[in-house]
Amino acid sequence: MKHNICLLFIAVMFYSCVPVPTETLYYDIESPDGNLRVGISIDSTINMAFADSTRQIADVRNAYMKLSDGRLFGMTDSTMSGMLPLKKVKSFSVDRVINAPFNRNSTTLEAYNGADFTFNGYGLRVRVYNDGFAYRFYSKVPGRYQVADENVDIMVHDADTAYFAYSNASRGMEYQCSFENRYYAGPLSEALKDTAIMTPALVRSGGRNIIISDNDISAYPGMFLKYDGKSLKGAFARIPDKVKKIPPRSQEIPVGYSDVMASCNGSREFPWRVIGYGDDKSLLSSDLMYVLGNKGKIRKTDWIKPGKAAWEWWNAIGLDSVDFMPGINTETYEYFIDFAAEFGIEYIVIDEGWYPSDSKNIFKTVPGMNLKRVVDYGREKGVGVILWTVAYLLDKDLELACKYYSSLGVKGFKVDFIDRDDAEAVRMVERICAKAAEYGLILDLHGMYKPAGLNRKYPNVLNFEGVWGLEQMKWSNDDMISNDLTFPFIRMWAGPVDYTQGAMRNKTREEFIADYENPSSQGTRARQVAEYVVFDSPLAMLCDSPSEYYADSLCTRFIADLPVTYDKVYPMDARIGKLIVTARKKGNAWFIGGINGWEALSYDLQLDKIISPGETYSAVILKDAEDSAMNPQEYVIEEFDADAYTSVDIEMAPGGGFALMMYPESE
Fold first, then answer.
1. pTM
2. What's the mean per-residue pLDDT of the chain?
3. How far apart are CA 289 and CA 216, in angstroms?
4. pLDDT for the residue 359
5. What's the 3-state SS for 535-551?
């Protein structure tokens, strides 16, 4: 028999009691717009077929979990015969608007059709959205138990190009990584086999994108993938049974693993397995990963302030013409605060080195550093202070550290070197998020896996690394321009990125050389400005030194005037690896950013895509100059009036970009 699940109303549910099955059961769930469909078949295993209105997209084969005591969720024991004991099916539909103040869209539609399948002691939830689908197991097993394995096996139909970021750790240690790497972009058939792939991972088929990830990870390992030549299979770290601390930062690194993935106690839900689907534009505006996140744990969020931050680590405290010795000292950070206050920048970040690295004690400061004086000075100037710390040292004294530094007036932590996503590391991250929220502290998580809905659950987490960002230019000569045009479609699909843009030392492809102490960017200065609009970053760094920003105060003022959160994102043009042009709306104003590849590009920006007839705006654009191809630090700023009939001709240099601000003339 076949059950077609048609779902039409908000939160309408019905229950279907299923007799003991004697043949394969089939269930179809359609997306709210009717374009996507998931066909679920249940016999001795569970399989799911994902399709759009024209073709099969992907198959999820033999979805199951195995407990350490041999019990199985989603598969009949090999010693038994017959079908899975499906007891009940509950279908439902949701169509509502949710507030998402620090998400790429400040309000978003949560609309899906779904079903719950209840078995003996466990169940399976399936949701189908307009831009993908997700499934997860949940347990009703009483008492304590352990998860030994989970089978995630996804085969993409007619796959061609793959975009994979492999773990940057050695084989055998692949689950201990910084979650940063460039993307392999080539035929799926030529992708590395049995090598850990970070999620999200993207495969193209028929001109569309299939993007695979996990979401709502809690007390459970994050999901990597491995390609076996036919399908992509989930790969998971086990719980470490032995760790060691690595000097000088006191990171914790597993040196031995148990044979279990997670330890559980009683009823719980396991992470979502997610398959997103869409064209290039839709990946830049999708809220699928956000809405799949658990509902917020913080009732009041008005204390959470997004913003920009002046930051000293990338530029190696490269201050010129000052009357003190630059370094990790009180005078340096007061100077950074003065700079931030002058340009209306909300924060400064005090990065590594403010506490003695060999002390293993984040309550001490290095000689010459009066942290209380710096924080008090920032308060007087209206600039908040964010402190860097290693995750494991913070966690060791979590309650005391949050209590002490919040009472001192510190606004948050930049938490670094997590470098794992096994179940114990995930537990630690959630402990830090929860305790920081309790004491009114914002977070920027580095050495960190993708957001995976954590920014919905804990909105005090404003930004995440887990991206091959601008810091790589301190030691790598690899192609950052192509990377800039790839990760927004994949890693950024999962949530915001702390890419740390804003370089004022800009080089052509030919002249660029990595320099740790005097870093620069590839491409033009206009591109660096554009990236504040193109990238999702509710806490956005200004990576270069105040000396460089003072030397070009016109550009710095333009950066400072750009928002970091918006009401709506509207991708105007998107071609993975080649071009991104993104418009974002804030109130009644529009902000547009565009970046291109290494080939110069003449771009005709048609404003009728976002401006309605009768609306008029005052516009200012910062774009590449005529000679930016040879002198990438050069740019021009132009002002003009704009309406629905305006088109803007923009010449983008190699590795170039532009940023445009438009304010209603009526205001």
1. 0.96
2. 95
3. 9
4. 76
5. CCCCEEEECCCHHHHHH
**Is there a catalytic annotation at residue 416?**
yes
Cα 82 → chain centroid: 43
Alpha-carbon distance values, 556 to 128, 344, 620 (Å):
44, 11, 14
Annotated catalytic residue within 214, 419, 471, 548: 471
Look at residue 12 in the predicted model and tell me its pLDDT.
39
484 is catalytic: no
Q: Specify the 3-state DSSP secondary structure of 529.
A: helix
- Whether residue 248 is preceded by a cis peptide bond, meaning omega within 30 degrees of 0, is yes
Confidence of residue 136 (pLDDT cuts 50, 70, 90): very high
Give the relative orientation of helices 371-381 and 330-343 as an angle to the nearest 10 degrees.
10
| Residue (of 585, 584, 603, 586) closest to 595 by Cα position | 603
Is there a contact between 165 and 183 (Cβ–Cβ < 8 Å)? yes
pLDDT-based confidence at residue 414 (cuts at 50, 70, 90): very high
Instruction: Please report where in the chains the tokens 């690394």 appear, as a residue.
Output: 465
Q: What secondary structure, in 3-state letters, does 435-448 show?
A: HHHHCCCEEEECCC
CB contact set of 60 (below 8 Å; sequence gap of 6+):
47, 48, 49, 50, 135, 152, 153, 154, 273, 275
Closest CA to 352 of 405, 318, 311: 311
Q: What is the pLDDT of residues 535-563, one digit of tens each?
A: 999 999 999 999 999 999 999 999 999 99
CA-to-CA distance for 431 and 435, rounded, in angstroms? 6
455 SS3 class: helix
Check if the beta carbon of residue 377 is closer than 8 Å to that of residue 337: yes
pLDDT-derived band at 14 (thresholds 50, 70, 90) equals very low
d(CA 568, CA 73): 40
Q: Distance between CA atoms of 414 and 374, rounded to whole angstroms?
A: 17
For residue 396 the two structure tokens come to 């060791």
CA distance 195 to 224: 9
Unique residue bearing structure tokens 């992470």: 271
Q: What is the pLDDT of residues 65-115, one digit of tens each?
A: 999 999 999 999 765 567 899 999 999 999 999 999 999 999 999 999 999
Apex 233 CA angle, 103 and 31, nearest 5: 50
Among residues 174, 416, 424, 444, which one is catalytic?
416
